[in-house]
Design brief:
Elements: H1 2-5, H2 8-11, H3 18-32, H4 44-57, H5 62-78, H6 84-103
Helix pairs in contact: 3-4, 4-5, 4-6
Amino acid sequence: ILALLLPNEVTKTLEEGTYHFLADETKIQVENSVRDNYFTTRWPSTIALAAILNAIEQLVNDKDYKYLLKAVQLMLEEFDFCSPMILLSAKERLRHLMDENVEL
């Protein structure tokens, strides 16, 4: 999903390190999602997109943040993903799971 969201020519316009940060943070969150049975009933694309959104929220560069949120919005309009309520629920659940992981 991240590659679809950010084709190679677009990643060059982001601040240096942004794409790698998104990829790494998304990977960590998706890997941690297996610790919670809640995610067994969610589409893999929902988990991936929730992780991407959480990673975007951690960005410091305002330009990249706005650009990436717009890209996600366009993707949600174009492709058949879960409902926004399910996506937001998964996003919050995943963030909570990551917060618990930091506390350990």
